[in-house]
Specification:
single chain, 363 residues, mainly beta, ten-stranded mixed β-sheet, four-stranded antiparallel β-sheet, 5 helices, 16 strands, 31% strand, elongated
Length: 363
């Protein structure tokens, strides 16, 4: 493995790590390629970096060192914007960077910060702890404990699982309802619904995800596919130095980050499609809004690893590229009675329901 990246001076390891949770502004931006707009550091090797690419999008890269937990829980990272991630980890007196403010669409105040910090703290607390087996060695192997830790940091136990080495399409699903589901149904407009929404009003969101899982890998794994959103991760199991983690989205320049031995780095790119529109809006069939495999945000995404050719070099590489998201009403037929169902937009007889037996009741 080579000691530094030749593609970009954006090493996420080295003596420049900051101790304590304080974001810093990067040096003057390069003429092309991504620029670091903020960084929040915790324990050595644990940090969150915000990178603005030359298309104006901001990628969030999370670095962690075995066996520590990351600063951002993967569940929180998946379901929040880059601006929300920043507010969840940055000190209260740190202003939101301009590049994040452009598309923030949220109130930046103390209450918002504290709410996001609590959500992330709760998600971190729910993560399983990792037994410290003493770290990795130079032997060419990704240990069982290290693989389990990688899955925890990435947020999916299949990442690092040697029985799931594959490139395939999977279809994970989420549910939306008033209580007991993955996400709230109609958080913004459910108050307009008559009759009122009940816990048995349930929407299911199903994603199509092209997935890479490479475990105990020697050499250079490559992965690419178009999609709206991508989540890539690389963990450096063993070897004589850092590996280069390269990724690209759309027409932006390739970003190269370094991952040290005993460390992991994962990054999210593009427009999140989970949670879906149903989390906020349910009235007049808005819950049906999904994401087809098309549109301006449906662009190429790629992941590759370099400097992994030494005798004892081994990495774990994982990728999830979200290509589409569809919404389905799976409410119980007896939820409001057989003649009342959530409306599709074209058949609404009230704000939220189609009442085939006449006017909708108000209870």
């Amino acid at each position: 493995m080579k000691p530094s990246s030749t593609s970009l001076a954006l090493a996420l390891v080295g003596a420049g790590w900051l101790i304590g949770a304080s974001p810093v502004q990067a040096a003057a931006p390069a003429s092309s390629g991504p620029r670091e707009i903020a960084r929040v550091s915790g324990a050595p090797g644990n940090h969150v970096v915000f990178l603005e690419n030359d298309e104006g999008e901001v990628d969030v890269a999370v670095a962690a060192t075995y066996p520590l937990r990351p600063l951002i829980a993967p569940r929180f990272l998946k379901s929040h914007t880059a601006a929300e991630v920043f507010l969840a980890v940055a000190p209260a007196n740190q202003a939101l960077p301009t590049a994040l403010m452009r598309n923030a669409r949220l109130v930046v105040d103390r209450d918002t910060r504290e709410k996001l910090q609590r959500e992330n703290a709760a998600a971190l607390a729910s993560m399983p702890s990792t037994r410290d087996s003493g770290g990795q060695s130079l032997a060419a192997s990704c240990s069982e404990f290290f693989r389990g830790w990688v899955g925890t940091v990435y947020g999916d136990a299949s990442c690092g699982d040697p029985s799931q080495e594959v490139i395939e399409t999977v279809h994970p699903s989420d549910t939306y309802c008033t209580s007991g589901c993955d996400y709230t149904l109609g958080a913004f407009d459910k108050g307009t619904c008559e009759p009122k929404l009940r816990s048995c009003d349930i929407i299911k969101g199903t994603a199509s995800v092209v997935r890479l899982r490479a475990t105990n890998w020697w050499g250079g794994p490559n992965f690419n596919h178009p999609g709206h959103f991508a989540h890539f991760g690389v963990a450096n199991c063993t070897g004589n130095g850092p590996v280069d983690f390269n990724y690209k989205r759309g027409t932006a320049s390739t970003t190269t980050l370094q991952v040290p031995v005993n460390g992991m780095l994962h990054v999210k790119l593009g427009s999140e499609i989970v949670p879906g529109n149903a989390a906020n809006f349910v009235s007049y069939g808005q819950w049906k809004t999904g994401k087809p495999a098309s549109g301006t945000t449906y662009v190429g995404n790629s992941l590759s690893v370099e400097a992994n050719g030494g005798t004892d070099d081994r990495v774990i590489a994982c990728g999830d590229i979200y290509t589409s998201y569809t919404m389905t009403d799976i409410s119980s037929p007896t939820c409001h009675g057989p003649e009342i169902s959530l409306c599709s937009g074209s058949n609404c007889t009230s704000a939220c329901f189609y009442c085939s037996g006449g006017s909708c009741p108000t209870n």
